[in-house]
Amino acid sequence: MAWGKNGTPLTLGSELDDMDITDLTANTFNQFMVHIISGASSTCTPDMTFDNTGGNDYARRNSTNGGADSTVTSAAFFENGLGGVGTGTDSFTIDYVCNIDSEEKLGIYFNMAAPAGAGTAPSRAEGTFKKDTSTDTGQFTRVDINNTDAGGFATSSNISALGSDLTPAAGTSATISEGAIFHETDTNISYVLYNGSWTAL
Question: Of 28, 31, 41, 142, which residue has the fewest beta carbons closer than 10 angstroms?
Fold first, then answer.
């Protein structure tokens, strides 16, 4: 299974409430990396949807800083962070999502929020989520991160994606010059390229 960049990563050039990747290839397994920088004057809460669908399709279970589980069901999105992470606080989230055609979309996420300075420990959240098939049964090809709080995602906030089952781009051919030496570390033998053949030294 080959993993590679999926879709076009997005880095915000100004403060906005929305970050999307709209050109994903439909893959069975996906990884999303979301770096949120809170707006200058207020909090932001990143929420995730697939294919820009809401309805009552989402449910999640999460825990913050090792506390008791919290659950939300029949929601229009799932919260993809701690929620209200605070003025000027960066957060970083990794999402792993299984995206099988005609099946519920299943995911696991890990989030941390980091107030500036070594004197404050970062916060953490981990959780699971799913999206049912009542609105959309196919594989998703779009991911949206929307702010549902008072602030915004500051400049340089980013979302990037990796996907499985991708066909790697063809490699660039290379010419190896006559006289090149290759050392095989497993056998501790060196070889020299001579007249198109590798010969042990």
Answer: 41
* Residue 43, pLDDT score: 77
CA angle 7–11–14, rounded 5-degree value: 140
Lowest mean pLDDT across 42-51, 71-80, 121-130, 156-165 = 42-51
Q: Are 148 and 47 in contact (CB under 8 A)?
A: yes
Q: Which amino acid type is present at position 51?
A: D
Average per-residue pLDDT in the chain?
A: 86
116 in the same domain as 39: yes
Please state the pTM of the whole predicted model.
0.79
β-strands 123-131, 197-200 pairing: unpaired
Strand partners, 117: none
18 is written with which tokens? 């929305």
- 200 and 125 in one domain? no
Q: What angle do CA 19, 20, 22 make, to 5 degrees?
A: 165
